[in-house]
Specification:
The protein is α/β, with parallel strands linked by helices. Helices cover 46% and strands 16% of the residues. The structure holds zinc ion. The site of zinc ion has 6 residues, from loops.
């Protein structure tokens, strides 16, 4: 058993309290490799933002759970070396699928876990989430639960269609489970293809697809039921069209990729939404930079020559999200 506290990590409790009160949201960025982690930490330090490092099942399969944990520990020291005296870094399990997975992460130093029982019948979701909370709270690890179903595919989390969270269920769920934050479904979804062209309208000026708006009425109803309780949005990438264009320009083939407009996320960040998950946008930034670098210098074979620009591009993206979308800058 390793406590996250000895690794210099923090849980989400105080962080979320301040974020809800201050009308901003904490970035939750997924990471799978060193360049991505460096970019996240550089961006957080430069903008003086707290940050949540998320590890999905796909990341654990790809990069190994143990290695990722040590990388997060290294990230704390790296942040200090970059000049941040007191970094606030959370190591969070994204979409924990069972009690055992959550326990194993808690035991090896994660400071926060998500247990995703949203696909289960309500009572089973309550029972599973409660079990994880009871274990996690013994070690002061915070727990995110989920109610409602998000559409889309990301790291083996997939659903055909979304079901909005039912506001009438949230108080019962939070009271019975004791979870510290709640992921809800109000129209965001996983991946870079969040909506079909049929669900979108076409912007007459640019010809781009405009996605349907998020269900802010559902969010408001949930906030009314649970005043001040930390709410989480998954699947909140905006799928910047410049990156999609760059990918396609250099040999890629991404058709009709569409995300959540940033002005809607800005509005959500000012509410009780205090954690916003962003993964696809960083994948797009990385892929666009790698494709461009390789296309422009076809003789290059040093990975640092294309992963370096990819890292710089991701850092720029993370800083933009922190400062212009979430508002979590200057909070350390
Ligand atoms: Zn998610």
């Amino acid at each position: 058993m390793i406590s996250y506290k000895t690794l210099g990590l923090v849980n989400t409790r105080e962080m979320f309290k301040k974020a809800v009160k201050g009308g901003y949201a904490i970035p939750a960025f997924n990471f799978n490799n060193m360049e991505q982690l460096q970019a996240i930490i550089m961006a957080a330090v430069e903008t003086k933002s707290p940050v949540i490092l998320q590890v999905s099942r796909g990341a654990r399969d790809y990069a190994n759970q143990t290695l990722l944990r040590y990388m997060a520990e290294g990230a704390v020291e790296y942040a200090k070396e970059l000049g941040c005296e007191k970094p606030e870094i959370v190591l969070h399990l994204d979409h924990g699928d069972s009690f055992e997975t959550c326990k194993s992460c808690i035991d090896m130093g994660f400071s926060s876990v998500m247990i995703d029982g949203s696909h289960l019948p309500y009572d089973e979701n309550v029972a599973l989430t409660k079990k994880v909370v009871e274990y996690a709270h013994q070690f002061d690890v915070t727990v995110e639960g989920e109610l409602g179903v998000l559409a889309g595919v990301e790291d083996e989390v997939s659903a055909e269609e979304s079901h909005y969270t039912k506001p009438e269920e949230v108080v019962d769920f939070v009271t019975k489970t004791g979870c510290d934050s709640l992921a809800i479904s109000i129209g965001t979804s996983h991946g870079a293809y969040k909506f079909t062209p049929e669900q979108c309208t076409v912007d007459p000026e640019t010809g781009r697809l405009l996605p349907p708006p998020l269900a802010f009425d559902v969010l408001e109803a949930i906030e009314k039921e649970l005043p001040g309780f930390p709410i989480v949005l998954h699947g909140s990438s905006s799928v910047p069209q410049e990156d999609v264009d760059t990918i396609n320009k250099y040999g890629g083939k991404m058709v009709a990729a569409v995300g959540i407009p940033e002005e809607q996320l800005r509005k959500a960040a000012k509410s009780a939404v205090c954690k916003i998950n962003i993964d696809s946008d960083s994948r797009l930034a990385m892929t666009a930079a790698v494709r461009k670098a390789l296309a422009e210098k076809p003789a290059e074979f040093d990975p640092r020559k294309y992963l370096g620009p990819a890292r710089a591009s991701m850092k720029e993206l993370y800083m933009h999200k922190i400062v212009n979308v979430l508002g979590s800058n200057d909070k350390l």
